[in-house]
Write a structure and sequence with these properties.
heterodimer, A: 18 helices, globular, B: mainly alpha, three-stranded antiparallel beta sheet, 25 helices, 3 strands
């Protein structure tokens, strides 16, 4: 009982602490036995998974609001920076998502052989940063954790990534890592300017603080003038939007995927891109609502471009990872559209889509990684008839693909349907385009399935072996989640609905 | 009756069971699927009797004020979109509606699926993916039954997409063959295009009515909350989905290619059940179409065009399965025409009569294929001798669809024609009668050439002697044959409590069965003439078609090329969609990346290099710049002061 309450009070702190402390401790594992680092990382990510499940289950959707709150005082007036923690109905499912994907990512990273210790240190630090962003209620620490989540990507891609020659052009891992880093840091600069602007404004209003709840109240009271909000919101929209893959700032993302190793791709598309969308909601919409309202028509327009541009680009790609990378750009478009509707169903759909797309795209990267590890190629025009040799991989990929094209019964459908519904109410012509985009998705997914997975067995791939038990376990679990959420989304949605309802109260 | 939800659930449960445990089990899991659908068939009768005996006012049953139909509605919550209680939030339900329309579909789907699954035991024997075949069948049955039962449009859409994916999986079942892969892809994408419209129609109804429930939508259509413009828009958008699934012009191109799937699949999915889902959707959403006369007219026109075009192609086709496929398209067109002409009961009656007859024809064709491994009718002939049972049953189906009296197809087709002649412009009935004539002609051609004409010797590919269907294949055909022959008789007002199909399926007003004599006589004469002519041409070979072939050569070429519709679509895909896609991908690489991203990076790099040149470390050059700067400032200051 006492133990339980203790856990409950400190769950949010622990879930941030565990991976960061785990990362530090991983440094002390033996260099001679690289498996140790892997095992230790599994232990740490299993703890965070358990904690994330605990947090999600513990969240009382009837009560709503921020729960499991806790505050560690740090710097007083006039800075007023404190480690203030709390989750609401929007953050709780994303915490769960990160718990699942971090665990899965660590499990499939068994194949990392070179400097595996350093790899897991960085991966856990990244995971801790993501948890931090989702649970923190202070702008300073939000930014801190945001950077902690983003910066390890540079090394993870630059050191453990792969370079590919595409004939007409080359993508080296260094190029991918550098491009990603420059984009995200440029976005961070905008975000930091926005944060400081709000801080200064709060100071002018007489209560300097970085506390997000206080700032949100000030925004509601009208302490932030509409003019101010109108130029601050775009800073957040673009700054966080870069990470969400917002067109035309998406271009770091597919190149990053092509260069990144499997576990990094999983976290990159699975949760990192969600951080961007989450930032737009949490910081942009909550702290500068008037600005958000003014800019949403622009945002939904860009989101629609994301959907169609991503889908059409994916259709012409020859590399498996490029297909999925552009598909992520397209699917993040639905998230952006949903957010921009400012309609309870649309925003709820966006949050569900973050969860659903996170699992789905992580699943795809597990499988593509497994194929690449075995065939050392990802060209869909060269791969052929994989079903004969990799039956399990084909089965899982087909389900992920069907989820991607919005097949009912799988999680993507409910989310996309809700986004369409919200958009249909608010921006009818764009909703029509978005629904059509789902049909375009069918084209590239089915083309990919028909070319690479089905078809006659190719003797070149006769040596391939099917998924390892670990890979099967991870992929199987992801598939079960996709089906469970698709068939019974209510456990997630009732939490999301409360969060979205209080978020939209100001609009 | 409240247990009717179990009908699809049986098959839903069977699906994962077969996938996970099917292979090692006796029969490789097939018995699970058959038991599940058999259980569904039994429950259908329970539900039917329950419906007929239920007292109004209890058990969620009531007479709908919008449609006048006695309806039972059961639902449980599925999920909430938006926080319950807030504006615009909506609750989605797993709900089922039980009314005559749903019961008709339930009965037909469970029966034909059961027959086809039993038939497949023999047909698919020895296939390496036998278990998967039955797993897909179970999933299909479950989805199709959910489609028939759904009480809200979203659940209908869910089931609609699931039958689509089952169709995809089963068309591409032999994915080693490129034709099968491409056909599967084509079927999914073409129908998906229609579904875009359907989903938009559903969303439009939600926006206007505030609910996804069908009964709410019908109520709104009935009392005018849904205005005529919205009803037209919603009806037409829903109809787009129906056109995709039911292969109506111009979405019909996928169905003939779908014949790449195993023949029993063609019988079940691409003849009797799934392709009829479009007709079912229009019938289901009829109050919305009624609220908008324009939408009904579009349905009728599209139906007529489809029926005409497809029947001409069927006449020119030489592939046995494709003849049947085009015949299916044509008959689906007739059903749509009938719906558009207010012939609601006629359309559903024809849906059933056609379903039984066409399933029988496909199973017969499957029997031929299974035994001769031949699909081109030019290589067949005289098969009546080696396979008499198949020949008899196939002929029964062909005569039924050709419209020969007392067989099922005669009554239903007559009802359709009667509705058209009553409610439409005379041009419609003329063209519909012409379609009926063509329909009898191509059916007669297929039947006479394959079974009765002279035996062909070329095509000696079969290693084993041609044999008739084995028992597991023959029994389902026999049962379907009974229905294809006698189903029409249930339409009469037999003495006793039963009032005939017309009053069972009534809509708005009691529309019992009635014969329009002049149509019955004309259509019978046309059918008989067609069969006689075909007999003379193909069996007795008294008439040679060579003269006609040369005279109409250009026209025939157009028809043989399916009016170049496939070419047109291929051109659109290759020259428009893929080109656009490649262009966007190129822009992304060349403009967004190379110019937008690498460009600034390059500029920064160059500026750095250029700047570096100035940082020379030579004191005199710094001094020079400083002096120049000072002079510049001085001039500036002097100018400002002056």
């Amino acid at each position: 009982m006492d133990f339980f309450t203790a856990i409950e009070q400190s769950a949010l702190f622990l879930i941030v602490l565990a991976p960061i402390a785990g990362a530090l401790l991983t440094m002390f594992t033996s260099r001679e036995r690289p498996q140790d680092a892997w095992h230790f990382a599994i232990l740490v990510s299993a703890i965070t998974l358990a904690l994330s499940i605990f947090i999600f289950v513990q969240y009382d959707f009837r009560a709503g609001g921020y729960q499991l709150t806790h505050i560690f005082r740090w710097l007083g007036y006039p800075l007023d920076i404190n480690l203030s923690l709390g989750v609401d109905g929007i953050a709780a499912p994303l915490v769960l998502l990160n718990g699942i994907i971090l665990f899965g990512g660590v499990l499939v990273a068994q194949t990392i052989k070179r400097r595996s210790r350093d790899f897991f240190v960085l991966l856990l630090a990244l995971g801790g940063g993501v948890f931090g962003v989702f649970v923190v209620r202070d702008l300073f620490f939000l930014f801190f954790f945001y950077e902690l989540a983003v910066l390890p990507m540079y090394l993870l891609i630059g050191v453990w990534g792969s370079s590919t020659d595409f004939g007409t052009f080359r993508r080296t891992k260094e190029y991918g890592a550098m491009k990603l880093m420059l984009f995200l840091v440029a976005g961070s600069v905008l975000i930091w300017v926005g944060i400081l602007a709000l801080y200064v404004q709060a100071w002018k209003a007489g209560a300097p603080t970085f506390d997000m709840s206080t700032l949100a109240e000030m925004a509601q009271r009208g302490d932030f003038s509409e003019g101010l909000q109108r130029w601050v919101f775009p800073l957040f929209m673009i700054g966080f939007g870069v990470l969400a893959g917002l067109w035309p700032f998406h271009t770091w993302s597919p190149d990053g995927h092509v260069a990144a190793p499997t576990a990094v791709s999983m976290l990159h598309a699975g949760v990192l891109m969600k951080l961007g969308a989450y930032g737009i909601i949490r910081v942009g919409m909550e702290l500068t609502p008037a600005g958000a309202e003014a800019w949403m028509p622009v945002l939904i327009g860009l989101g629609t471009v994301n959907v169609l541009y991503g889908a059409f680009s994916a259709m012409s790609q020859g590399d498996l990872k490029y297909v999925i990378g552009y598909s992520s750009v397209s699917h993040m478009g639905y998230v952006i559209m949903g957010i921009a509707t400012l309609h309870p169903i649309g925003v709820g759909g966006a949050v569900l889509q973050m969860f659903s797309h996170g699992i789905m795209t992580a699943l795809m990267f597990v499988l593509v990684g497994a194929i690449y590890d075995r065939a050392h190629i990802r060209d869909i025009n060269v791969l052929n008839g994989l079903v004969k040799r990799m039956g399990a991989a084909t089965f899982f990929f087909a389900i992920a693909g069907l989820a991607s094209l919005g097949l009912p019964g799988l999680s993507g459908f409910v989310a996309e349907f809700m986004v369409f519904t919200g958009a249909f109410k608010e921006y009818l012509p764009l909703a029509v385009l978005a629904v059509a985009g789902a049909a375009v998705t069918a084209v590239y997914i089915l083309r990919l399935l028909a070319r690479s997975f089905f078809g006659e067995a190719d003797p070149r791939w006769a040596h391939l072996t099917d998924l390892s038990p670990v890979e099967k376990g991870v992929a199987g679990a992801f598939v079960l989640i996709l089906i469970a959420v698709g068939v019974w989304p209510e456990p997630l949605l009732r939490v999301i609905n409360t969060g979205v309802a209080s978020l939209l109260k100001v609009f | 009756m409240e247990w009717a939800w179990l009908i699809p659930v049986f098959s839903f449960v069977a699906f994962p069971l077969i996938v996970l445990f099917g292979k090692p089990l006796p029969g490789k899991g097939a018995p699970i699927a058959i038991l599940a659908i058999g259980g569904g068939f039994v429950l259908f009768w329970v539900a039917l009797l329950g419906y007929l005996n239920v007292v109004p006012g209890v058990n969620n049953c009531f007479t709908s004020s919008a449609t006048g139909v006695f309806t039972c509605d059961y639902r449980i919550s599925w999920f909430h979109a938006g926080l319950p209680g807030l504006e615009d939030s909506v609750e989605l339900a797993w709900g089922m509606i039980i009314d005559p329309l749903a019961l008709v579909m339930l009965g037909m789907v469970t029966f034909v699926a059961l027959m086809v699954q039993i038939y497949s035991l023999g047909y698919m024997k020895g296939d390496p993916r036998f278990s998967w075949y039955y797993a897909y069948h179970a999933l299909f049955a479950a989805a199709m039954l959910t489609l028939a039962l759904a009480d809200n449009f979203l659940l209908l859409y869910v089931a609609w997409e699931l039958v689509g994916v089952c169709s995809y999986l089963l068309i591409g079942f032999w994915y080693e063959r490129p034709a099968a892969r491409n056909a599967a892809k084509k079927a999914f994408i073409v129908t998906r295009l229609g579904d875009v419209g359907m989903l938009l129609g559903i969303l439009l109804l939600w926006r206007e009515v505030g609910s996804f429930s069908m009964l709410d939508a019908f109520e709104a259509a009935h009392n005018g909350v849904l205005n005529q413009g919205a009803a037209t828009a919603a009806g037409l958008l829903l109809f787009l989905g129906a056109m995709g699934k039911s292969a109506q012009f111009p979405f019909h191109v996928w169905l003939p290619d779908a014949m790449e799937g195993p023949t029993p699949v063609s019988a079940l999915i691409h003849a009797a059940t799934m392709v009829a889902a479009g007709v079912y959707l229009v019938a289901r959403a009829y109050p919305i179409f009624m609220a908008s006369g324009d939408a009904l007219l579009v349905v009728a026109v599209i139906g007529l065009i489809t029926a005409l075009l497809a029947s001409t192609i069927a006449l020119a086709s030489t592939d046995l399965k494709r003849i049947l496929a085009y015949s299916t398209i044509s008959h689906l067109g007739l059903m749509m025409l009938s719906l558009g002409a207010l012939g609601y009961t006629a359309a559903l009656f024809h849906l059933m009569a056609h379903g039984f007859s066409k399933a029988l024809l496909f199973l017969g064709a499957g029997s031929v294929l299974h035994s001769t491994e031949e699909q081109d009718i030019r290589n067949m002939g005289g098969l009546r001798k080696p396979m008499p049972l198949t020949a008899f049953l196939f002929s029964l189906g062909a005569l039924s669809l050709g419209g020969i009296p007392i067989l099922a197809g005669f009554w239903s087709k007559d009802e359709v024609l009667s509705a058209v002649s009553h409610n439409m412009n005379p041009i419609f009935i003329v063209l519909a009668l012409f379609t009926a004539l063509l329909s009898a002609l191509y059916m007669a051609r297929a039947m006479f050439v394959v079974f009765f004409g002279p035996a062909r010797t070329h095509g000696h590919r079969h290693s084993h002697p041609i044999h008739d269907a084995q028992l597991s294949m023959a029994a389902p055909m026999l049962l379907l044959g009974v229905l294809a022959a006698g189903f029409g008789l249930i339409s009469f007002n037999w003495p006793g409590s039963y009032q005939g199909i017309g009053s069972f399926l009534f809509f708005k007003e009691h529309e019992g069965f009635h014969i329009t004599w002049w149509i019955a006589i004309v259509s019978t004469l046309l059918a008989l003439a067609a069969f006689f002519a075909a007999y003379l041409v193909y069996v007795r070979q008294r008439i040679s078609l060579e003269g006609a072939r040369t005279a109409f050569a250009p026209l025939i070429r157009v028809v043989e090329n399916k009016y170049y519709m496939d070419h047109l679509y291929q051109w659109l895909v290759d020259r428009v969609v893929l080109v656009a896609s490649a262009a966007i991908a190129l822009v992304d690489r060349a403009v967004v990346n190379d110019v937008g991203v690498n460009g600034p990076a390059e500029v920064v790099g160059r500026v750095g290099i250029a700047m570096r040149r100035h940082v020379t470390g030579h004191l005199y050059s710094y001094a020079l710049v400083m002096t120049l700067g000072l002079i510049g400032l001085a001039i500036f200051w002097w100018l400002r002061a002056g």
